[in-house]
Amino acid sequence: MDLTIVGCSGSFAGPDSPASSYLVRSEHEGRTWSIVLDLGNGALGHLQRHVDPLTVDAVLVSHLHVDHCIDLCGLYVMLKYVPGGSGREGLPAYGPEGTGDHLVRAYGNEEIEDVPGVFDFRTFTDREPVVVGPFTITPVRVEHPIEAYGFRVEADGRVLVYTGDTDLCDALTPLMTGADLVLADAAFVDGRDEVRGIHLSGSRAAEAAVRAGGVQRLMLTHLPAWNDPEQCRAQAAAVWPGEVELAKPGATYTV
């Protein structure tokens, strides 16, 4: 199972990276299966560097903040209007309650009727797995101001965890336990961002991974452009016993 960081800037697209989006691929039954975790602002353009979006098998949206979902509007246009009539219908799009309605409003025409035909919208149920080819994806409700999920992605005997946007909460333990790689929100900086219930800091991400047990690798993501990545890494390293990795836009990692 391979993970490509399409975008990892937190809260808004930065000068060096789109907002949140992650491409996960695995070989199965003679072909490459691809899923996209989140599609924030700016991500659709960079996604095309790594995969033809018309071939993606499913999109999974952690929550409905702009920096995680808004480029679904562009993907709708691509899927529907690609020249030559080679687009597709019914792309599975998983998300919180109301994802389809949210997309229609964001597109700017509340009477548009064919968005649900281009996308096959499916609503998450907390801790109820969904299967896409070789992937089993378990959405776990986490702590954020709106309905939000982390994803536990299993394939090829490996486990990738993406926390989405969350603060420290009990749900992170079953989400992270035994993961080969945890891709963790670290938007907040200790000593600067004191509000709770929104994001992890590097230290809180590390605390959650240590508490869960069995985590092999910790990678920080969702860092806003105003953060110093090395400060976030240092705060995590004060808690995490191994190497703290930073997500790099455009990089591909084997899980």
SSE inventory with pairings:
Layout: E1 2-7, E2 21-28, E3 31-39, H1 43-47, E4 58-60, H2 66-69, H3 72-81, E5 91-95, H4 99-107, H5 115-118, E6 119-123, E7 130-132, E8 135-141, E9 149-155, E10 158-162, H6 172-176, E11 181-185, H7 202-212, E12 218-221, H8 229-237, E13 244-246, E14 252-254
Parallel strand pairs: 3-4, 4-5, 5-6, 10-11, 11-12, 12-13
Antiparallel strand pairs: 1-2, 1-14, 2-3, 7-8, 8-9, 9-10
Helix pairs in contact: 7-8
What would your notes on this structure say?
By secondary structure, the chain is of the alpha/beta class. The protein has one domain (about 1-255): Ribonuclease Z/Hydroxyacylglutathione hydrolase-like (Metallo-beta-lactamase, Chain A, 4-Layer Sandwich), CATH 3.60.15.10. Helix content is about 20%, strand content about 30%. It has helices spanning about 45, 65-70, 70-80, 100-105, 115-120, 170-175, 200-210, 230-235; strands at about 1-5, 20-30, 30-40, 60, 90-95, 120-125, 130, 135-140, 150-155, 160, 180-185, 220, 245, 250-255.
**Which term fits the overall shape?**
globular
CATH architecture: 4-Layer Sandwich
Please state how the strands of the largest beta sheet are arranged side by side. 6-5-4-3-2-1-14
- Strand residue content: 25-35%
Counting H and I runs of at least 4 residues, what is the number of helices? 8
Head-to-tail CA distance between termini: 6 Å
Instruction: Return the string of H and E elements.
Output: EEEHEHHEHHEEEEEHEHEHEE
Q: What structural class should be given to the helix and strand makeup?
A: alpha/beta
Uncertain residue ranges = none
Counting DSSP E segments of at least 2 residues, the number of strands comes to: 14
How many domains is the backbone divided into? Answer: 1
Name given to the CATH homologous superfamily = Ribonuclease Z/Hydroxyacylglutathione hydrolase-like
Mean pLDDT: 95
Taking all Cα atoms into account, the compactness measure Rg is 17 Å
CATH class: Alpha Beta
Main sheet? Answer: 7 strands, mixed
